[in-house]
Amino acid sequence: MRKFNKPLLALLIGSTLCSAAQAAAPGKPTIAWGNTKFAIVEVDQAATAYNNLVKVKNAADVSVSWNLWNGDAGTTAKILLNGKEAWSGPSTGSSGTANFKVNKGGRYQMQVALCNADGC
């Protein structure tokens, strides 16, 4: 029967567990409080002529902020609208803000995803 080298075995197991603990996807951010309704149509209540009452914009300006309370901040932040990427940029810490335009009206489910080499 062959004898095991216990210190070597312990070192191999320990290094395997440590490397697995370091490789992890970033934490899950929460969307900060803010405006949740954006419009591509503006109504001028002071207008007297019908032609001046409604103004249609090409896109709605959307701003969203987020906070990360625990976990890794990652290297990239993504804003998803109904599961599709609407904005992407660098993730710089435990909070961030994205500003982008949405040119199609409707209701959207918004999510923030932080990503690194190990995933989102």
TrEMBL record:
| Gene3D superfamilies from the UniProt entry | Immunoglobulins
**SUPFAM superfamilies attached here?**
E set domains (SSF81296)
Which spans of this chain does the record mark as coiled coil?
none
- Record-annotated Chitinase A N-terminal domain positions: 23-120
Report the CDD domains cross-referenced here: E_set_Chitinase_N (cd02848)
Q: Which UniProt keywords apply?
A: Signal
Record-level Gene Ontology MF annotations: chitinase activity
Origin superkingdom: Bacteria
Q: List the signal peptide residues.
A: 1-23
Entry-linked Pfam families: ChitinaseA_N
List this protein's GO terms for biological process. Answer: chitin catabolic process
> What is the designated name of this protein?
Chitinase
Species this chain originates from:
Serratia marcescens
Tell me the organism's taxonomic lineage: Bacteria, Pseudomonadati, Pseudomonadota, Gammaproteobacteria, Enterobacterales
